[in-house]
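Researcher: I'm preparing a figure for a lab meeting and need a structural model of a single chain. I don't have an experimental structure, so a prediction will have to do for now. The sequence is pasted below. Please return the structure as tokens so I can convert it later.
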Amino acid sequence: MGRFWPVLGLVGLVACGGGREGAPRGPQAVRVKVTAVKPEVLEVRATAVGTVEPEHRVLVAAQEEGVVTELLVREGDRVRKGQLLARLDDRELLAQLEEAEARLSEASGQWQRAQSLVKEGLITAAEADAARASFQVAQARVSALRTRLSFTRITAPVDGVVTARHVEIGSLVASRSPVVELAAGRMVLRVPVSELDVVKLKVGDRASVVVDALAATPLSARIERIFPAADPASRQVTVELVLEEVPAGLRPGFLARAELLLERIPNALLLPETVVMRGSEFPSFVYVVEGDVARVRPVQVGLRQGGKALVSSGLTPGERVVVEGASLLRDGQPVIVEGEQ
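Model: Understood. Here is the structure written out token by token.
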């Protein structure tokens, strides 16, 4: 039995040595990167999509029935107020006018004779009144026909650009039928804006407009008017913006996006949106480095915009927030700060 003691002693030494190596260690430090919280100016913006339109769409209609004998403009032509756009066949009206003028000449002579005869007592006052009435009726007839004849010349009521022709030469048009459509006034963009956002806008506010068809070049604009009522179905309000610069290639009907400035927050605490974490104990939290240790800090997040989160409470300027390595952390975890953004 004595020969086994040395072996047992060796086993005991091994067991004792193994116990020292298995002693519990503290949590290992995690390498992280942080950012110092500092106040920034935050511009809260909303994007709305709409269609570029002329400020006014003018439908030029015929005021007299007739056949189109001349059509002097095409789509895209720029016209001035009073410029002749089309002409209707006026031969019948000219003939009627000639007849009416002849009757007027006859009625005028009869009225002049009646004035002389009534003074001499050769006709009664009633007969003189009848002659005068006939003369006045003939005058009115001539005036009416001249007005109708002027309606055969269809002119532009305003300056504008021809956007559509609704007739061709030889077409028979009725009174009040559309002949030409004009785009008049400035170029505007009408966009729908949420009722929650429109209350933060006012007439005169500046905006930036991007037209996709024009290589996304930003255009300056301002709010010209805000419609008085919201759409009952969508709860959106139409906002009209006037484009202050109109590129040569811009046309009515182009799709455009307006970026509207809703609010400017001067001392906003912003963090990258990915830094704000969610958990079962706290809806939103971040890790703040205090000394060499990471601490869980519950925060309240308001607006999220452009990859940034606005922290409304829970942080103060100057605190260091973990931006890389947060997924490896627990509350109280030792950290080694490798860099600061």
